[in-house]
């Protein structure tokens, strides 16, 4: 584990404020046409042409050959990127999304959003909201994207994100409470090890400062590059426990799932966040893993499989109670 956050992220900061990103993670192309044995199909579509963002839509192959007329839920997924990395079409995210679509029997809309510092917050929140409105538009447009239009149930949409993607779920869900989205309904918000911060160090940050996936120095750099210019880590985008414009909308949130791991340096913040949700009388489920590090699903296949099962169980329970 390097003590240099630039080396950890494999980036260089250019004089014009942009980053050069040296990390080259394996990528997988979408597979919109079924081959024998393909459990899931996927296709890439434009989200916002002006912002050069896209979505990759996944659907279980058996659903396309089914004539049962039953619509399936839609999961809008914000992959992790530490705000600054390019991760949308990597093999890892593709496999996560495919597994989620097949195991849950859902349409998954994996969102490419803009990255910092070229685009600082709240640009990512705008992209998150773009994806929700895009799903609604496709479902209601007679010429909209066929998988969503013909097989998706927009009254059963779930927001899901890991790390900074979990942060995006929270702020997108807050924004959605003030919008007229019917007939689209956000039925649940799934935040896996959501990325929050603050100026005052927590015990878990100090104890796990050398986390293999997100050491403390890397956290600090990620926030420095992503927060609005001149803001520190007590800005509400990073530390939603402080009072801000978002506070009054928290009580309007729907059902939430917060997933935590003991070894995550962010766990103290996640627990404080969950407590805040409960204090605002948000229906909140917290799932705690006694082991693990930040973003453990990236390096531990067993945990990745368990994450999908947790999400599936949350969705099934949410729909049984609706």
UniProtKB/TrEMBL annotation:
<dbReference type="Pfam" id="PF07859">
    <property type="entry name" value="Abhydrolase_3"/>
</dbReference>
<dbReference type="GO" id="GO:0016787">
    <property type="term" value="F:hydrolase activity"/>
</dbReference>
<comment type="similarity">
    <text>Belongs to the 'GDXG' lipolytic enzyme family.</text>
</comment>
<dbReference type="InterPro" id="IPR013094">
    <property type="entry name" value="AB_hydrolase_3"/>
</dbReference>
<feature type="domain" description="Alpha/beta hydrolase fold-3">
    <location>
        <begin position="77"/>
        <end position="295"/>
    </location>
</feature>
<protein>
    <recommendedName>
        <fullName>Alpha/beta hydrolase fold-3 domain-containing protein</fullName>
    </recommendedName>
</protein>
<dbReference type="InterPro" id="IPR029058">
    <property type="entry name" value="AB_hydrolase_fold"/>
</dbReference>
<dbReference type="InterPro" id="IPR050466">
    <property type="entry name" value="Carboxylest/Gibb_receptor"/>
</dbReference>
């Amino acid at each position: 584990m390097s003590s240099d956050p630039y080396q950890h992220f494999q980036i260089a900061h250019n004089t014009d404020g942009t980053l050069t990103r040296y990390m080259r993670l394996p990528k997988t192309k979408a597979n919109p046409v079924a081959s024998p044995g393909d459990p899931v199909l996927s296709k890439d579509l434009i989200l916002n042409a002006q912002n050069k963002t896209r979505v990759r839509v996944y659907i279980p192959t058996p659903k396309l050959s089914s004539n049962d007329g039953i619509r399936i839920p839609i999961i809008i997924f914000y992959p992790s990127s530490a705000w600054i990395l390019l991760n949308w079409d990597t093999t890892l995210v593709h496999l996560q999304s495919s597994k989620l679509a097949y195991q849950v029997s859902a349409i998954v809309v994996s969102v490419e959003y803009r990255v910092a510092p070229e685009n600082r917050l709240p640009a990512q929140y705008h992209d998150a909201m773009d994806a929700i409105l895009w799903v609604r538009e496709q479902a209601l447009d007679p010429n909209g994207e066929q998988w969503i239009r013909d097989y998706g149930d927009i009254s059963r949409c779930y927001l899901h994100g890991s790390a900074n993607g979990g942060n995006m779920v929270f702020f997108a869900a807050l924004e959605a409470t003030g919008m007229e989205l019917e007939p689209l309904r956000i039925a649940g918000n799934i935040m896996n090890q959501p990325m929050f911060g603050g100026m005052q160090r927590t015990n878990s940050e100090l104890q796990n400062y050398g986390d293999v996936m997100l050491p403390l120095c890397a956290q600090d750099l990620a926030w420095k590059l992503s927060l609005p210019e001149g803001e520190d880590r007590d800005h509400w985008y990073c530390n939603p426990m402080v009072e801000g414009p978002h506070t009054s909308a928290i009580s309007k949130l729907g059902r939430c799932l917060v997933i935590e791991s003991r070894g995550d340096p962010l766990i103290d913040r996640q627990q404080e966040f969950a407590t805040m949700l409960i204090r605002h009388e948000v229906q909140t489920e917290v799932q705690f893993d006694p082991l693990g590090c930040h973003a453990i699903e990236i390096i531990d296949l067993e945990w990745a499989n368990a994450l999908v099962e947790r999400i599936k169980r949350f969705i099934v329970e949410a729909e049984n109670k609706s």
